[in-house]
Specification:
Elements: H1 8-14, H2 16-24, E1 28-30, E2 36-39, H3 48-52, E3 56-61, H4 63-80, E4 84-88, H5 89-95, E5 103-109, H6 115-126, E6 130-135, H7 141-145, E7 148-151, H8 164-180, H9 188-209, H10 212-222, E8 227-232, H11 237-251, E9 254-259, E10 276-280, H12 287-299, E11 303-309, H13 315-318, E12 323-327, H14 335-353
Parallel strand pairs: 3-4, 3-5, 5-6, 6-7, 8-9, 8-10, 10-11, 11-12
Antiparallel strand pairs: 1-2
């Protein structure tokens, strides 16, 4: 089952180029010249008009699935021009959130069986909201209970740490955002750029996987550390959170994903010459702000590891001592799919080097079917 790989987590990280292609297969329709022309989501077409008329869109899930919602929020806001809010499924139930008939709630789940997400779905249904699923497992409870949805078709995910489901969830939701905005003339160019970017995405993820040996080396350097901070913002706030979740759940190292804009509001106090800090600073609308974050972390002697775009020339001048990880540059809203790959590889290698079980981390189950 694991083939050439030692662990399911490793296999699933390396399967991502193929898994992402499967998510898009038959849905990103090409013209005769092979360019992406439009998006066709069989399961959503009947409901698209209702979703466009919603008062707001609510993205809901747990753990990694919730992080994928964070990664996609900005694009949903941009393309649908609707308010988009995020909800952790357990919190929906704790707060008895005000949901309404004219809300669209999108429930994201790899397993489709997570108790909190399923209960939040039942709650939203009882309030009369339109319920949409973004689910990997066909025939699962969430897939069956939603009004409509998209199967991400990532293939079975066995490792407890979610990897390929995360990237495929983002891609599936990019397709949803594209399909909801297909009538918008003003967004034609942006939509076209994203569609052509999607076509290149599996190749860019494959490119990133070639960094495996570099990440093994970095894991060797970091394996005795007790804490790791990861800063991101904008489209890559989710990358920071998801990278930190991977490091803590499998490598059993304390790690915190931090919105870089919050740095001066507390986290900066943790920074000294011993603290390893990863900053996601690929080239997008947040680049200059991230450059300033890097300068400030450097001024406090932080041990910096920077994830930068392959054509970047500035960051290594800003922080000459930093470890630089170069990733392929893609459309800004797709960059999170690429940027998470080095962090998945790092957490995998840290886990193995520290002698832990990455497929069955202590105290965790693949599917959390009780509240
Ligand atoms: C479907 C078929 C696929 C076939 C394709 C051909 C299934 C599961 N999928 O894929 O095998 O190749 O047509 O046109 O038979 N749904 C939910 N909630 C969810 C996820 C999905 O209600 O969380 C619903 C959808 O609204 C849809 C159905 O399940 O009615 C299948 O969804 P999906 O597999 O995403 O649809 P297609 O990509 O059209
Ligand atoms: O199956 P789901 O996507 O609903 O699961 C949600 C979380 O339990 C899951 O993502 C969990 O956080 C993973 N162990 C993260 O790797």
């Amino acid at each position: 089952m694991k083939g050439e790989f030692d662990h399911f987590m490793q296999k699933e990280i390396f399967e991502q180029p193929e898994a992402i292609s499967s998510t898009m297969r038959g849905r990103l329709v090409l013209d005769v010249l092979g360019a992406a022309e439009r998006v066709m989501l069989g399961g959503m077409s009947q409901f698209a008009a209702t979703i466009r008329r919603s008062r707001r869109i609510i993205l809901c899930g747990c753990g990694t699935s919730y992080n994928s919602a964070i990664a996609i929020r900005q694009l949903f806001e941009e393309l649908t021009e609707l308010p988009v809010t995020l909800e952790l499924a357990s919190d929906v139930l704790d707060r008895r959130c005000p949901f309404f008939r004219d809300d669209t709630c999108i429930f994201i789940s790899q397993s489709g069986e997570t108790a909190d997400t399923l209960k939040a779905l039942e709650y939203a249904k009882a309030k009369g909201a339109l319920c949409v699923g973004i689910v990997n497992t066909v025939g699962s409870a969430i897939s069956r209970a939603t009004d409509c949805g998209v199967h991400i078709n990532a293939g079975a995910e066995i490792g407890v740490a979610s990897t390929k489901a995360y990237t495929c969830q983002i891609v599936a939701m990019v397709l949803v955002a594209l399909s909801l905005s297909e009538d918008s003339r003003s967004k034609h160019t942006r939509r076209d750029d994203i569609m052509q970017g999607l076509l290149k995405l599996p190749g860019c993820v494959k490119e990133c996987l070639k960094m495996d040996a570099i990440l093994l080396e970095l894991a060797q350097e970091l394996k005795e550390e007790h804490s790791l901070l990861i800063f991101g913002r904008g489209f890559n706030y989710a990358t920071a959170l998801e990278g930190a979740l991977k490091v803590k759940e499998v490598a059993l190292v304390h790690s915190e994903g931090i919105l870089a804009g919050e740095m001066k509001h507390g986290p900066l106090a943790l920074v000294d010459k011993h603290m390893p800090i990863i900053v996601v600073c690929t080239n997008d609308g947040s680049y200059e702000k991230q450059q300033s974050v890097v300068q400030q972390l450097k001024a406090r002697d932080g041990r910096l590891i920077l994830i930068v775009s392959d054509d970047d020339t500035e960051m290594e001048k800003t922080a000459p001592d930093a470890v630089i990880l170069r990733v392929p540059k893609v459309e800004d809203c797709l960059q999170a799919v690429v940027n998470i790959v080095p962090l998945q590889l790092l957490s995998y290698h840290l886990t193995v080097l520290r002698g832990h079980n990455c497929d069955q981390p202590r105290n965790l189950a693949k599917s959390v079917t009780v509240e």
